[in-house]
């Protein structure tokens, strides 16, 4: 119901003017906004699920999850671009390596790691373990956990370089300090072998 401000007479919701004095009636402004219970429950659910996602699933600096996601995004952008023409595959591969090399020289640790992997596996470049070690070390010195683990593995296995468990342990310790489980298990394995 609407109420006239001048004469105080009440009129229906659809009436625009007071029937007695002809004054324009004010619009009805609801005092309380009533939402259906399902809308409130949905908003509450979305808020709680967003909070849980933020707390438990967002990347935190210095974690292997953060590195993995960064490296994965970088690799998907530069290493997995599909070729429109299979005859041009070598030039596409050359472009990927070129982009990685440019980013790696600018100090991008993910690019350094990916370039090291390319040299280690001979993907897009001629296989070169010394060049691979160089890029792994540059990435590992910047805190790249996967590069640290890779260096530890290379020195532990000793297939490409002279086996050096001290150097392997040093790289595994650095990765384990950042919470990498593979490095922690490798350290236990090395300690067990030395006993």
Description of the structure:
- There is one protein chain.
- The protein has 195 residues and is mainly alpha-helical.
- It folds into 2 domains: 1-29; 63-194, Tetratricopeptide repeat domain (Serine Threonine Protein Phosphatase 5, Tetratricopeptide repeat, Alpha Horseshoe), CATH 1.25.40.
- 61% of the residues lie in helices and 2% in strands.
- It is built from 8 helices and 2 strands.
- The protein has helices spanning 37-57, 64-78, 89-105, 109-121, 129-141, 145-157, 165-177, 181-194; strands at 2-3, 10-11.
- It has a two-stranded antiparallel ribbon with strand order 1-2.
- Strand 1 (2-3) and strand 2 form a beta hairpin.
- Helix 5 (129-141) packs across helix 6 (145-157) and helix 6 packs parallel to helix 8 (181-194).
- It is elongated, with a radius of gyration of 32 Å.
- The model is unreliable at 61-89 (pLDDT under 50).
């Amino acid at each position: 119901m609407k109420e006239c401000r001048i004469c105080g007479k009440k009129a229906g919701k659809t009436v625009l003017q007071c029937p007695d004095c002809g004054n324009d009636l004010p619009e009805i402004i609801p005092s309380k906004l009533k939402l259906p219970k399902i809308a409130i429950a949905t908003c509450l659910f979305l808020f709680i699920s967003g909070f849980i996602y933020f707390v438990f699933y967002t990347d935190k600096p210095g974690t292997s999850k953060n590195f993995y996601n960064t490296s994965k995004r970088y690799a998907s952008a530069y290493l997995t671009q599909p070729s429109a023409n299979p005859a041009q595959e070598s030039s596409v591969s050359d472009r990927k390596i070129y982009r990685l090399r440019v980013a790696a020289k600018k100090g991008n640790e993910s690019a350094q790691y990916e370039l090291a992997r390319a040299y280690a596996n001979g993907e897009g470049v001629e296989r070169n373990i010394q060049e691979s070690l160089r890029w792994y070390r540059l990435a590992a010195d910047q805190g790249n956990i996967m590069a640290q683990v890779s260096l530890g593995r290379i020195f532990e296995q000793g297939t490409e370089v002279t086996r050096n468990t001290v150097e392997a342990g040093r790289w595994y310790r650095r990765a384990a300090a950042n919470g990498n489980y593979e490095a922690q298990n490798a350290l236990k394995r090395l300690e067990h072998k030395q006993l």
